[in-house]
């Protein structure tokens, strides 16, 4: 079911493009199938046999994909999937075919339904949290659907900020609770609740997440602001699905922790306070949608108080009210959408006479509002009667809660009447509001939900055995016998309180003008304004802290980091006194030959400290790297040596490219004391790292895992242990490394994008650039002009590969791009040698790629060699030659490489047993011989492409861009001299 939802979400934009808004009808089949499946499983679940599914994910970390549907999960599945089906049907008539971003909206809405379904069925805390955050992201996209509206964007950001803050607190609580329990499986945790000092703070943090998700006080501000979203979003996320996640989490954990004071006090206090405050605020709203929004917040407080009370009767009332709320609040939001769609307004002061023009919508609203107000014979009445009864026999705290629930219910009746009067009845001095008649399919979803709410009251007794399955898991703390759901319990305190609520609500409605005046006069500060002030204060604080700590001095940053490293690491090292243990003696060398590169490395490192020329210092630093690579070679590690040599070469070239924009010499030496301090920091860090490396290796007692690498390498079908480790045995590490490289490349690309946006468009005017004599490459650039330019304009190509479509027609020259270089910058010998070496370098890189599994090489080394070939072309022919050498964009290479590696990794799970599982194939080809192929070669090919893309990106940014800057500066200097002359 989850896979079907996310596949449908991915296909939704395409379906909307084909079928327009009717694509929602096809998408509705997915949650409809989930609803049908849940109904088919219902008999077994009600009988006490939950449906479970478990898939091993990361057993070493006690993480599995575990799904479980008990009665609570069944109820939430029917709410999420069933109402989701109706909402999608509603969307098919709410939107128009030309709605901007409709395909994206459809995909996100179906994706949200899948994430919410996974949340209510997850039986693992970490897995639940993943789905929890997915709903946060999807809701952010749905609330901000109208991207052109500032209010919509602000509402989406508010919802994202508040719910993410709560989610992060919840994550900490989840980890604490899982570690205290020794398991993250929810069913196991409920069966054997943990105890200890971590449990109480963990539960408080989890409740922070639940309160923020369900918009309870003090996190209520985001839900009314989210009414900027389209009405289907409000009817689904904010009435039936997302906001239910918080109360669902409370309901899920109450059977284990409902008897704890911290759990009861938090849910009862904040739930009751939210119900009263939000209900009072709903009484003075003029926007029908805002009225329902504050009413939703009030009802969510009601649900949190019931489901977190920790008693069996309150739990029964809570799950009954959970169902009733979905059946009356969702259709009311849909009714508001119908009214807004047909009249163009939601302001109840401008609506009049709709009772006569839309009688069907009116009676649907009457049924839903009667259930919300708790009037018989609706489902809301049966649930509210049970709620009053659950607190009627408690102590002082329950009496206080009961008083709050009654007051909140009085407000509920009041704003229900306000909605009915404001939307449908005649108003003095207001003409009848014209309204387009809604179609049957537009009205049907709201009608179905209201009808179910009407049936819920008479069928309450039939639903009691089902819902009691969940309630019985909570400790019984009621009266003489457990309560039961029923439409009629006889005359008693609950019925009297219900009558009191109706009477109080009628009085509030009759005095609605005074209530609005009083509520406005005594209103507390606007929570949205408080929220914005808090964010502004945080921004100001962050700015001040950044100004004090981020001075832009690299030596200060590096010194602070190293001093912290020494202080934190040296203390336990000294206290542990590892030198007193039985550690082996230091072996100075295996062969005297190793002393030569070691001595050169040490001398170069020390010499780099005293030289004043930047280029000389860079060369000396490169010598230390080459010396280290030589030691690798002498130690019998050719793969490491090759990679180190290549990395040092690339680094040296990059340093040289950057040095063109820096002074030749270092700045004036700092104070002598500062220099001595830097030397001390460097020496202390070096000694610490050396000591930690030695003692860590000397402390080994168990056999090294490397002893099993040869056998594992043979099993993987390879002969090169190092390469096999990288692409097979520890391929997860390589996946992480290439992902980091891709992120680094994205950072470089983003900086280049900023530069491109700020660049003047003077280079867009070129139509055709032809070098003198017609030799060399012709760069064809699109332009509205029809007259080609015949002069050589190298500056016209300054940003061509990034902004324009470039077509290169080759001529048989050594380096055609070098034609654009100034004569003093050209070297014919270098150009000829570079042109001759380039094919050999590329051939060598391919050889290293394909032989890496059995000999020295690999995708990383091969990619660097190919990148060095591009470097040679660039250094010999300039930036135009770099553009001509490889016309593929760096981002495309990086993306293709990451896609290839990821696809190979996933193919292991599809065609094998797990992700990254490798396979081998041995072939005998005529005239070629035996051919050994491994799936890891394809993985290595992805690494190869990614490394080439990264080096190409560096060359184009630090090489070609700097060249362009230097040329522009030279042009400006020449123009200034001409003006002066």
What does this structure look like?
The protein has 981 residues and is mainly alpha-helical. It is built from 37 helices and seven strands. The strands form three sheets. A three-stranded antiparallel sheet has the order 3-4-5, with no helix packed on it. Helix 6 (125-143) runs antiparallel to helix 7, helix 15 (312-343) runs antiparallel to helix 20 and helix 25 crosses helix 29 (672-698). It is elongated, with a radius of gyration of 35 Å.
Oligomer: single chain
Distance between the termini: 78 Å
Tally of DSSP helical segments? 37
Helix content: 55-70%
Strand line-up of the largest beta sheet: 3-4-5
Q: Which spans have pLDDT < 50 for at least 5 consecutive residues?
A: 756-811
| Number of DSSP strand runs | 7
Query: Rg from C-alpha positions?
Result: 35 Å
The major pleated sheet works out as: 3 strands, antiparallel
* SSE-based structural type: mainly alpha
**Backbone shape:** elongated
How much strand?
Answer: under 5%
Instruction: Return the average pLDDT rounded to an integer.
Output: 84
Q: Which tags fit this structure?
A:
37 helices, two-stranded antiparallel ribbon, three-stranded antiparallel beta sheet, mainly alpha, 981 residues, 4% strand
What is the compact description of this entry?
The chain is mainly α and 981 residues long. 68% of the residues lie in helices and 4% in strands.
């Amino acid at each position: 079911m989850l896979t079907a939802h996310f596949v449908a979400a991915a296909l939704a934009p395409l379906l909307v493009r084909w079928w327009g808004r009717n694509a929602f009808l096809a998408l509705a089949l997915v949650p409809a199938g989930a609803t049908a499946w849940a109904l088919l499983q219902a008999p077994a679940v009600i009988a006490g046999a939950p449906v479970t599914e478990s898939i091993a994910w990361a057993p070493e970390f006690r993480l599995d994909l575990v799904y479980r549907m008990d009665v609570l999960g069944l109820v939430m599945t029917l709410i999420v999937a069933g109402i989701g089906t109706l909402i999608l049907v509603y969307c098919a008539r709410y939107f128009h075919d030309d709605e901007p971003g409709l395909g994206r909206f459809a995909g996100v809405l179906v994706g949200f339904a899948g994430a919410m379904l996974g949340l209510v069925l997850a039986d693992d805390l970490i897995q639940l949290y993943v789905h929890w955050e997915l709903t946060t992201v999807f809701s952010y996209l749905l609330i901000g659907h109208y991207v052109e509206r500032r209010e919509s964007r602000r509402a989406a950001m508010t919802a994202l900020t508040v719910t993410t803050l709560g989610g992060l607190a919840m994550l900490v609580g989840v980890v604490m609770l899982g570690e205290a329990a020794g398991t993250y499986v929810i069913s196991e945790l409920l069966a054997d609740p943990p105890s200890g000092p971590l449990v109480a703070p963990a539960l408080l943090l989890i409740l922070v997440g639940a309160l923020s998700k369900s918009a309870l006080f003090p996190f209520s501000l985001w839900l009314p602001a989210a009414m900027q979203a389209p009405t289907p979003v409000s009817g689904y996320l904010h009435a039936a699905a997302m906001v239910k996640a918080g109360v669902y989490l409370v309901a899920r954990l109450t059977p284990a922790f409902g008897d704890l004071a911290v759990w009861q006090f938090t849910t009862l206090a904040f739930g009751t306070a939210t119900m009263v405050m939000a209900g009072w605020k709903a009484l003075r709203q003029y926007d029908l949608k805002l009225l329902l929004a504050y009413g939703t917040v009030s009802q969510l407080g009601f649900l949190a108080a019931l489901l977190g009370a920790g008693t069996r009767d309150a739990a029964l009332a809570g799950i009954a009210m959970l169902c009733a709320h979905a059946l009356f609040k969702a259709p009311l939001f849909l009714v508001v959408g119908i009214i807004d769609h047909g009249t163009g307004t939601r302001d109840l002061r401008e609506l009049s006479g709709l009772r006569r023009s839309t009688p069907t919508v009116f009676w649907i609203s009457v049924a839903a509002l009667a259930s919300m107000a708790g009037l018989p014979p609706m489902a809301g009445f049966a649930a509210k009667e049970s709620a009053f009864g659950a607190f009627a026999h408690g102590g002082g705290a329950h009496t206080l809660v009961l008083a709050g629930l009654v007051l909140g219910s009085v407000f509920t009746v009041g704003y229900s009447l306000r909605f009915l009067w404001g939307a449908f009845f005649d108003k003095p001095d207001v003409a009848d509001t014209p309204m387009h008649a809604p179609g049957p399919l537009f009205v049907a979803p709201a009608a179905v939900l209201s009808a179910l709410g009407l049936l819920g009251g008479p069928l309450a007794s039939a639903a009691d055995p089902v819902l009691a399955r969940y309630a019985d898991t909570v400790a019984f703390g009621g009266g003489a016998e457990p309560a039961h759901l029923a439409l009629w319990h006889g005359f008693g305190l609950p019925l009297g309180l219900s009558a009191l609520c109706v009477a109080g609500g009628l009085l509030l409605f009759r005095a609605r003008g005074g209530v609005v005046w009083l509520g406005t006069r005594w209103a507390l500060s606007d929570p949205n304004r408080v929220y914005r002030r808090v964010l502004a204060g945080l921004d100001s604080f962050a700015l001040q802290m950044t100004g004090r700590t981020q001075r832009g001095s690299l030596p200060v940053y590096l010194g602070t980091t190293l001093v912290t490293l020494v202080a934190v690491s040296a203390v336990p090292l000294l206290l542990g006194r590892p030198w007193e243990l039985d550690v082996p003696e230091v072996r100075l060398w295996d062969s005297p030959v190793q002393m030569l590169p070691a001595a050169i490395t040490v001398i170069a490192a020390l010499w780099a400290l005293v030289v004043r020329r930047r280029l000389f210092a860079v060369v000396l630093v490169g010598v230390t790297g080459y010396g280290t690579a030589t030691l690798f070679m002498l130690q019998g590690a050719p793969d490491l040596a090759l990679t180190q040599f290549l990395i040092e070469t690339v680094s040296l070239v990059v340093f040289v490219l950057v040095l063109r924009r820096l002074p030749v010499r270092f700045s004036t030496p700092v104070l002598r004391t500062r220099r001595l301090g830097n030397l001390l920091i460097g020496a202390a860090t070096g000694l610490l790292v050396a000591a930690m490396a030695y003692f860590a290796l000397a402390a080994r007692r168990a056999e090294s895992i490397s002893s099993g690498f040869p056998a594992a390498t043979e099993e993987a079908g390879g002969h090169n242990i190092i390469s096999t480790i990288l692409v097979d045995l520890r391929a997860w590490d390589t996946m992480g490394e290439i992902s980091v490289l891709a992120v680094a490349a994205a950072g470089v690309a983003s900086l280049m994008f900023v530069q491109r946006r700020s660049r003047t468009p003077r280079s867009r005017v070129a139509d055709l650039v032809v070098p003198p004599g017609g030799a060399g490459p012709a760069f064809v650039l699109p332009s509205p002009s029809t007259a080609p330019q015949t002069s050589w304009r190298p500056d016209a190509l300054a940003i061509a590969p990034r902004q324009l479509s470039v077509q290169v027609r080759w001529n048989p020259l050594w380096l055609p791009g070098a034609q654009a270089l100034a004569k003093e910058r050209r070297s014919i010998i270098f150009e000829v040698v570079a042109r001759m070496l380039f094919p050999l370098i590329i051939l060598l890189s391919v050889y290293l790629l394909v032989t890496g599994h059995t000999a020295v090489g690999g995708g990383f080394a091969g990619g660097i060699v190919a990148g060095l070939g591009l470097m040679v072309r660039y250094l010999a022919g300039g930036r135009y030659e770099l553009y001509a050498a490889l016309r593929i964009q760096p981002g495309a290479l990086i993306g293709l490489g990451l896609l290839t590696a990821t696809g190979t990794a996933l193919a292991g799970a599809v065609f094998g047993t797990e992700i990254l599982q490798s396979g081998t194939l041995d072939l005998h080809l005529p005239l070629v011989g035996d051919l050994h192929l491994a799936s890891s070669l394809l993985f290595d090919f992805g690494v190869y492409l990614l490394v080439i893309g990264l080096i190409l990106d560096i060359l184009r940014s630090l090489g070609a861009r700097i060249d362009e800057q230097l040329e522009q500066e030279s042009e400006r200097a020449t123009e200034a001299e001409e003006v002066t002359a």
